[in-house]
Design brief:
mainly alpha, 2 domains, two-stranded antiparallel ribbon, two-stranded antiparallel sheet, 15 helices, 6 strands, elongated, binds zinc ion
Length: 310
């Protein structure tokens, strides 16, 4: 083999999961034995016979002999590929011959063609999905943050939150690390701390005013967040039903989005931040989206403002 196939084969040979080589999971199933190489293909056991019985392999001069020619199934005799191999094996005293014959005892040829099988599936069939499962079987994803969309808020809010989770919001601190510098890095809302996504949405005194109001409105204990990851778990409050959790999740998303919008209005249009006005916006936008996008037409404004969703 030359060229690209050499690279592909070299790549496959390197793939190993939990000490098991990918190649060792492919096996040959004997049919008529015409397409399986006696010494070089894995068919009688998990290894090749070349690896399991190196002395015998070395003695046989025809290394590529097929199973149908190298083994006599009627007499259960190993013939090998070379004419001198069988007589040599008769006088063999190293024990490999006996072990090999025991291994091959009971194996039968059939009229069907030889085929490749994937040893990790129940019915031996191969699929890319099974290889993918095998490649991931020793990986632990329990700490991975999986972002779940909120269905009743629009994509722009969901995408914004997805970017928050990845720390991909263009705050002044984030831009600064990417060599985009615009003078002071201080948060425009409080003028005290560096503007990072964590500060802007969680720690800034203005943001905390919003979370205080949201907590009161949704009748949950004061909302405090220590990292952006907490934002995605904020709705998992004990005592809330599925509906309330879904609404609270959406409200958290809308609040973050509105804080970012207010920050942009302040920075680019010099519109001062009025917490009460923005909080009212969050409630009315939330009502509009939940009622129409979430298809909860029966909900009334007073119930929404009192967080009575049952
Ligand atoms: Zn601030």
């Amino acid at each position: 083999m030359t060229g690209v196939w050499v690279s592909i084969v070299k790549c496959i040979l390197k793939v190993k999961v939990a000490g098991t080589n990918l190649v060792s999971l492919f096996k040959r199933e004997v049919g008529n034995g015409m397409d399986i190489r006696l010494w070089l293909d894995p068919w009688a056991c998990n290894d090749t016979l070349k690896e399991r019985f190196p002395i015998l392999f070395q003695k046989d001069k025809d290394k590529k002999v097929c199973v149908a020619d190298g083994f006599c199934w009627e007499s259960n005799k190993l013939l090998g590929g070379d004419i001198n191999f069988a007589p040599w094996l008769r006088d063999d005293t190293n024990g490999e011959g006996t072990s090999l014959l025991q291994l091959l005892d009971g194996k039968q040829l059939s009229g069907t063609n030889d085929r490749w099988i994937w040893s990790r599936s129940k019915d031996s069939t191969f699929s890319v999905k099974l290889v993918k499962e095998w490649l991931n079987c020793d990986k632990d994803y329990s700490n991975r943050q999986v972002f779940k969309w909120c269905k009743w808020v629009p994509r722009k809010c969901n995408i914004f939150m997805w970017r928050v989770g990845l720390d991909r919001i263009p705050t002044l601190a984030a831009l600064n690390t990417r060599n985009c510098r615009f003078g002071s890095l201080l948060c425009g809302m409080c003028d005290q701390h560096e503007e990072s996504v964590g500060h802007l949405l969680l720690e800034c005194e203005v943001a905390m005013e919003f979370w205080q109001k949201i907590g009161d409105w949704c009748k949950v204990s004061p909302l405090f967040f220590f990292s952006t990851t907490n934002l995605f778990k904020a709705h998992n409050v004990e005592g809330l039903g599925i509906k309330e959790k879904s609404v609270l999740k959406g409200i958290v998303f809308i609040t973050c989005w509105c804080i970012w919008k207010a920050r942009n209005d302040l920075r680019f249009a010099n519109i001062t931040i009025n917490v009460d006005r923005i909080f009212n916006d969050i409630r009315s936008i939330g009502f509009l989206w939940y009622r129409n996008r979430g298809k909860h037409r029966s909900i009334m404004w007073n119930d929404w403002c009192g967080f009575n969703l049952r």
